Amino acid sequence: MNTPTLQIQNLHKHYGKVHAVNNLSLEVQPGQVFGLLGPNGSGKTTTLGIILDVIKRSGGEYRWFGEAPSAESRKKIGAILETPVFYPYLSAVDNLKIVALIKGTDESRIDTVLQTVDLHERRNDAFKTYSLGMKQRLAIASALLADPDVMILDEPTNGLDPQGIAEIRQLIVQIAQQGKTIILASHLLDEVQKVCSHFAVLKKGKLIYTGGVDEALTGTDTVEVAASDMKSLEEAIQQFTHTESVRPEKQFLRVRLNNNQSSTDLNRFLIERGIIVSHLSQRTNSLEQQFLQILATDPASTNQSSLANQTATNHA
Ligand SMILES: Nc1ncnc2c1ncn2[C@@H]1O[C@H](COP(=O)(O)OP(=O)(O)OP(=O)(O)O)[C@@H](O)[C@H]1O
Ligand SMILES: [Mg+2]
Predict the structure, then answer these.
(1) What is the fold, at CATH topology level, of the domain defined by 222-283?
(2) I want to staple 12 with a disulfide (CB 3.0 to 4.6 A). Which of 56, 59, 214, 252 is the partner?
(3) 6-217: what CATH class?
(4) 21 alpha carbon, closest ligand
């Protein structure tokens, strides 16, 4: 097996009484788009800050590319924690020249990264004339400048309008396709489903789940169906072309459908065959429902505060 890109072992972070990261262990493999999913205050930004060496850990270990973190490994990581600061009156190109100077990378990739984030046409316009989505894309361009193997993004779509959100998500997928490993924090299940291959769920600093998106968040709902004649009901369901599986449970059959077919489609099919159901109910994947509940945790009841304004902008 490949060396994991990132290994976190028994990581802890205390802020006074707040146990912001509580015995966190997880692994990110090369090529994964890894989502760190959790509600406000669950420790996502703190975790990213620690593995980027901008926040001091209270305990535990982490390794990049199988080795203890070093300046060398840090060079292979591009990150955006919070919104980077660019000079408002300078163009994208001039801002990136400054970034290149600070990072000690040469300017040769400026054109390429501006193309990647689709800002090439606007490259000579002042930063202050950019939309929020364009500003975020420039931030991503700046993190890509040194051609890192890993990209770390903290809530990359926060505050954007739907179009901006879609553009950023598409860009993340595109960057992943270039072979980069991506680690992103998000409080949106939907975002993790759309862009990630793997994910971990955090709640009050603790890991409560980690696994593949496909296994856990397939988005395929199941449908519970019952009728007076369960035998002919099951036979009919088996004949429905979109049925993936039928499993008898106590009072009903649990049916998994493919191609986003809904309970309504199944019901229509059954009615056409003269079967009237006594129970029909669509159920969301139970894990998914569990996560949605966790993510819906009332922020007021958790210890809420973010690192905004405190975490230094990280261009590296
Ligand atoms: N500098 C700090 N000083 C004190 N407590 C902090 C500090 N930074 C974070 N915390 C606390 O640590 C916990 C985790 O915060 P963190 O910002 O990592 O969460 P998060 O998952 O990124 O949340 P959000 O979704 O709001 O960005 C919270 O209880 C927060 O109040
Ligand atoms: Mg955060």
Answers:
(1) Alpha-Beta Plaits (3.30.70)
(2) 59
(3) alpha beta
(4) 1
